[in-house]
Design goal:
single chain; mainly beta; seven-stranded mixed β-sheet
Length: 115
């Protein structure tokens, strides 16, 4: 059974920081491309950042320079370090795993940026 379990969301003030984690089980984590998506109320789900099995990363323009995606294949965990958070970063953040036709989603974790 595949599980992607996100944690680390919460309420933070503007310019604050959070670190999201996604613990994966039931998949050979090291070979999967791992992504973070987010979905704000009334908006479509959007790709925030991805990391390939070889560690290559890519980011949405809106988060470049503020967010850092990383992975630890030894503990099957994906991370998203978020700095200089803005109110427009408020969304449910989802962990996603992709390998060929196989893809899996976590249940999401809420991030709210507000004073």
């Amino acid at each position: 059974q595949v599980q992607l379990l996100e944690s680390g969301g919460g309420l933070v003030q503007p310019e604050g920081s959070l670190r999201l984690s996604c613990a994966a089980s039931g998949i050979p984590f090291a070979i999967y491309t791992m992504d973070w998506y987010r979905q704000a109320p009334g908006k479509e789900r959007e790709l925030v950042a991805l990391i390939y099995h070889d560690g290559t990363t890519n980011y949405a323009d809106s988060v470049k320079g503020r967010f850092t995606i990383s992975r630890d294949n030894n503990v099957n965990t994906l991370y998203l370090a978020m700095n200089s958070l803005k109110p427009e970063d408020t969304a449910v953040y989802y962990c996603h795993a992709l390998y060929g036709p196989l893809n899996y989603w976590g249940q999401g974790t809420q991030v709210t940026v507000s004073s």
